[in-house]
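Translate sequence into structure tokens.
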Amino acid sequence: MPHELLSSESVYEGRFVNVRVDTVAVPGGHVEREVVEESSDGVLVVPLTDDGKIVLVEQSRHLFGTTYEVPSGAINPGETPIEAAARELFEEACLTATSFELMSSHVNSVHMTGRNYYFLATGLVPAAGAICDADEEFIGRAELRFDEVERLIEEDRIPDLRNRGCIWLAQLRVLQKAAHERLAPIG
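Result follows.
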């Protein structure tokens, strides 16, 4: 049963997030809860090459230095999650895909309002004449084997749990598909 909202106060308004403090009734009294209101939902795309490598974008992040991330970003107004996934793949990795598989849709946290959509993109094709989005954070892109990605996670070069989560889901999908193909009846 949801707790009753008694009051809500905005404490911060920013470009990507707003923060409010909600007072909610709970058995025996009330509590205050911080809520992060995200400006939009987002997509994360795991591009998987035909030879089983993951395409990651190398970024410069002021909190972490050089990181590796899957193409990702906000869903624009009027855009579907799959349209946003295709756009982000094109903008950040200069790729198109023949297939997008939705792996997960979920909120970031029970105290956040934004929803993320994780996609596995296959059938990758370099976008003719495309130039990767050279924003202030973009360094380059890399095609890496799962073991190389695992090393980057261990070294905290992929510090974001959302990135790690969608990579792990993609790895699980690849392993499940391989097991299914091995066990499929012949003939």
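Note: Strands lie at 5-13, 17-26, 29-38, 42-47, 54-61, 65-69, 72-74, 95-107, 115-126, 138-144.
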